Each structure stands twice: as structure tokens, then as C-alpha cells.
Amino acid sequence: MRKVMIMVLVAAMSVMMVTAAFAGAKEKVKVGFVYISPVGDEGYSYAQDQGRLAIDKLPWVETSYVESVPEGPDSERVVLNFARKGYDVIFGTSFGYMDPMVKVSKKFPGVSFMHCSGFKTTPNMSNYFGRMYQARYLTGLVAGLMTKSDVIGYVAAFPIPEVIRGINAFTLGVRAVNPEATVRVVWTKTWYDPALEKDAAISLLDMKADVITQHQDSPGPQEAAQERGKYSIAYNSDMSKMAPKAHLTAAVWNWAPLFKNVVEQVRDGVWQGNESLWWGMDQGVVDIAPFGPMVPKDVQDKVLAAKQEIIKGNNVIFAGPISDQNGKVMVPAGKSMTDPEMLGMMWFVEGVIGNTK
């Protein structure tokens, strides 16, 4: 009898715990997205919006978005408007939305705020990103194996750790298979300006680059490479239809798994702020696009083998020895960079030609 009573008590406590966990559960979750550029740009906002469309198919999710929102006061106004309208989750998808989101989150403690690529959190605001450096490394392997001039051009937006980390991972991939190759960087100081991005790519092509890649939101650099009869590696999404004769592959986002995880937690009343989500290739958030027909099978096989090693955790990318542009050892042999070190990276690895300003 005593054993039976204990079993009944344990069962009752389990029911109480489950009930408590789901006490804040919602029947409907309203989700708002704020984008830095047009969703039709085939780039960063397009990739984020593909994730939104994926969760919008869930019967208990309702989504909305505002595109082309500049960083600064405008973004604060848009985030505030979503909060006032009773949205349960607000995704701010650009780095410059960070401080405005922190400010608004403090006024609406019952709303869940998710900021992309930043580092600040509050009790009801987390940040999220993906380990894009993993995909960047793989695309670097492709570039290093496909270049003939040993000059690779990189059109980059802003000199912040996110962008610098991607350039470095790409260069490590290039140099792993082609130690003589260099990666030339041109800064545009804009996330989305198709004409300027294309001009920057042209300047790199004029410097003998025969492969162009980018940390930009438009296909401008891809189009420049195709017009010159050179190769290109895209970013954010598969841009092969924009430059089919040039497109080798792309480092791409798949935000659907992460977005689904967040909205499920909000629905179930278990979401918590003050967290940083940094998902990788093993969780399906980052990947590479299908190879273009000009990429030889042996190159494809080598890259796909490296991809499997990353997924298994056998290739951490930023493992020593790694030196900076001046030959100074930044990561000794036998050591690997920690997440905080990678998130704060503000120096270029050996093989990059350019500055971090």
C-alpha cells in the first residue's frame, strides 16, 4: 500500500509540473519581423523571410513583416508598433536594431524579443545567429580550388566581427587548398546597395580577381562576375539564377529550424530571454548551395567530405596555428578559438589583403 501511495504521489506531482510548465501556453502566437532590406533582394532579408514563411504555415502562428527599415530611430518605431499591437514575438534581423530593441524590450516585459547577430540581451530579449563561418570555410575551399589567378575578391559591408569572422573563415578555406592565393577585401559600408556592390566587385575584378564573393544583400557582385566571364560565390541564398554562368555555390541560411524552435517555446510558455542562440551546420541553419555545373566532381567531393567533418564536429575551423596579416600567431597550435573570441574577432588572418576599418 505504501508503494502504491508513493507512486500515486509521484504521478500527481508530475501532472502538476507539466501543468505549471504549460500554464503560460498560447493558442495563437503572433510573430513580427523587421527587415533591413527588401524581401525580394535574393539576399539576407529574403533568407530571413523564407524562415518566416516556413513558420507561417503552422496553424497556430500568425506572422507579419516590415521591410527596408533603416537602423536607428526608424527601427525603434517599427519594433514599438509591433509590441503595441500585441505581437508575442518580435524578430529584429539586423545588427543595428540591437539598441532600439533593448530599449523597447524594457517597456514590454511580456513580449519576447529576438535580435539577430548582436550581443546584448535583457530578461525578455535574446539574440540569435548561425555559425555561418562553417559554410564560409567550405565556400573558401571551392574558391581556392577554382581560382587560376590566385586572387579572390570579397565585397564586404561593414567591418564588424560578424563580417570579419566570415572573411577569415573563407580565407582559411582558400589557403587550406591553395596557400598561394590571397583574398582582397573592399568595404562598401552598406548592407544593401546593388549598384555600389556591383561597382565594388568590378574594382576587384580589375585587380585580377577571378572569383568574387560577398557579404552583401544583393546579387550585384554575382552579376559583375558573370559579365566579366569570371566565377562567383554568393551569400544568404542560392543566387544561381541571377548569374548562372558564374555561380559556383553559395553560403546560405535556413532560418526555419531556429524560428520554429523559438515560436514553439513561446507557445508553450517556456521561452526565456537573456540567451544567445548560435546554431550551426549540424542543426541545419547554415549550409552551402548546390554546385554550379562548372565545378568538377573532385572539387565537389572534397568540399562535401569537409562538410561532413564539420557536421561531426571534427573541423572547428578556427583551430591553431593561425596567424594574422602581420604574421603574429593569434591562435597557437593545439588551441581553438572560443565562442566569445570568435564573436569579438576584429583582426584578419594571414592571406587577407585589406584593413579592418
Written account of the structure:
The chain is α/β, with parallel strands linked by helices. The chain folds into 2 domains: 25-131 and 255-282, Rossmann fold, CATH 3.40.50; 132-253 and 285-353, Response regulator (Rossmann fold). The chain contains 11 helices and 15 strands. It has helices spanning 2-21, 44-56, 73-84, 98-107, 132-146, 161-177, 194-206, 220-227, 256-268, 297-312, 339-343; strands spanning 29-34, 61-66, 89-92, 112-116, 125-130, 151-156, 182-187, 211-215, 231-236, 247-253, 276-279, 286-288, 322-323, 329-331, 352-353. A hairpin with a 5-residue loop joins strand 13 (322-323) and strand 14. It starts with a helix and ends with a strand. The model is unreliable at 1-23 (pLDDT under 50).
Descriptors for this entry?
single chain; 357 residues; alpha/beta; Rossmann fold; 2 domains; seven-stranded mixed β-sheet; six-stranded parallel β-sheet; 11 helices; globular; ABC-Purine-Binding
